[in-house]
Amino acid sequence: VIHGQLDKAASFPRPERPAPRRPGRGGSHGSLHLDCARALAAIYVLGTRLGKHFTGITSLRPHRGPGARSALISALIRRLAARRSSATRSQKPHPAPLDARPATSAQVEILDAKTREKLCFLDKVEPHATIAEIKNLFTKTHPQWYPARQSLRLDPKGKSLKDEDVLQKLPVGTTATLYFRDLGAQISWVTVFLTEYAGPLFIYLLFYFRVPFIYGHKYDFTSSRHTVVHLACICHSFHYVKRLLETLFVHRFSHGTMPLRNIFKNCTYYWGFAAWMAYYINHPLYTPPTYGAQQVKLALAIFVICQLGNFSIHMALRDLRPAGSKTRKIPYPTKNPFTWLFLLVSCPNYTYEVGSWIGFAIMTQCLPVALFSLVGFTQMTIWAKGKHRSYLKEFRDYPPLRMPIIPFLL
Ligand SMILES: NC(=O)c1ccc[n+]([C@@H]2O[C@H](COP(=O)([O-])OP(=O)(O)OC[C@H]3O[C@@H](n4cnc5c(N)ncnc54)[C@H](OP(=O)(O)O)[C@@H]3O)[C@@H](O)[C@H]2O)c1
């Protein structure tokens, strides 16, 4: 009977809004003082019926008299607390974050994620140290692994922790075990982009000016008689100059570096395609598009609109992130009509980028350009899907109408 009453008391409606739960303290069981408040409220409501049952508790008998009521309440609270703590003990708890304990310093051991070999033991780490600070400490013992090369994880196969993550907020014990992976030699993003984009600009111009050893001696430094060839050169150069300037003055990247090996892959892609496209477009035997000036004008309009759109989206993304920060927000349309595509897709800059290349393909009517558009579209769709997924995961109020790259379709 007593246990039944205790259960009723415990399930009595909460008299006020619950206090925020503290991690690592039994989670769903709530805090002790809340239980007490609920028990007290229950006692007053259950009144004499509850009191009748208390008389049957042997341990409470000595408390009859003027102090009996408060003794009953204390005993009841103690029992509730004991039941709660035994329920909590019976569950296997997750390691509590460090801030749930009065720790003044923590220890961090760093193991190799592949071999589990202990690489480093850091004693007396401040509980509020960030992962970036732990990386700096690790570098002191292993200078070959500078911070940008390091990936630290809670799980050997899990995701990398962010530099700004704080040790005491992580679900680790007083000795935190972190797993290390070497990301390989790193290079700054700006260097990567500049190399990737300066290459196509320069390579295209070599073909446009027909430098020696490309088309045969008699064509050296000759010029095409087709207007579209000159227009194509202007469009291509404009596109890459724009990208270079955006890399330097517009984008606010959140990652400082990327693996060095990526530069070889990316440059092969951009430089290779630029050379292949330029070779055919600037070839002395090149023939202009089937529908002549009309086709070129239409293509130029598509190209210009998409370039403006792409630039507008880059500006909108830049304005989302205060200088020097890594904040990510949901992008919304602004007063600029080119940004209204944000109503329908998550990555309109990719949509406009693909549009520009389709425009360029129509203008030049050149197969390598069409292939470059297709490969770029495939790659950007993969990235757009990834970005779309992370928006959905990160923001619960993410606009449901949006698709990754193509409105209503993809
Ligand atoms: N032709 C091709 O094959 C091809 C392929 C890829 C890209 N591109 C061109 O290169 C451009 C840049 O590519 P990207 O992949 O770097 O584009 P992106 O991921 O959309 O990023 C553009 C810039 O905006 C920032 N950003 C993105 N979403 C943000 C958000 N929600 N809040 C705050 N900042 C945000 C990015 O920072 P983070 O550093 O945090 O990402 C980055 O600095 C593209 O728009 C496209 O024109 C061309």
UniProtKB/TrEMBL annotation:
Q: What is its EC number?
A: 1.3.1.93
For this protein, the record's InterPro entries field holds: 3-oxo-5_a-steroid_4-DH_C, SRD5A/TECR, TECR-like_N, Ubiquitin-like_domsf
Instruction: Quote the Pfam families the UniProt record gives.
Output: Steroid_dh, TECR_N
What are the annotated GO cellular component locations? endoplasmic reticulum membrane
* Region spans: Disordered: 1-30, 83-104
User: TM segments?
Assistant: 187-209, 298-317, 358-383
As for membrane topology, the entry says: Multi-pass membrane protein
Family stated for the protein in its record: Belongs to the steroid 5-alpha reductase family.
The record's function comment reads: Involved in both the production of very long-chain fatty acids for sphingolipid synthesis and the degradation of the sphingosine moiety in sphingolipids through the sphingosine 1-phosphate metabolic pathway. Catalyzes the last of the four reactions of the long-chain fatty acids elongation cycle. This endoplasmic reticulum-bound enzymatic process, allows the addition of 2 carbons to the chain of long- and very long-chain fatty acids/VLCFAs per cycle.
- Its protein name is Very-long-chain enoyl-CoA reductase
Q: Which organism is it from?
A: Ursus americanus
Gene name in the database record:
TECR
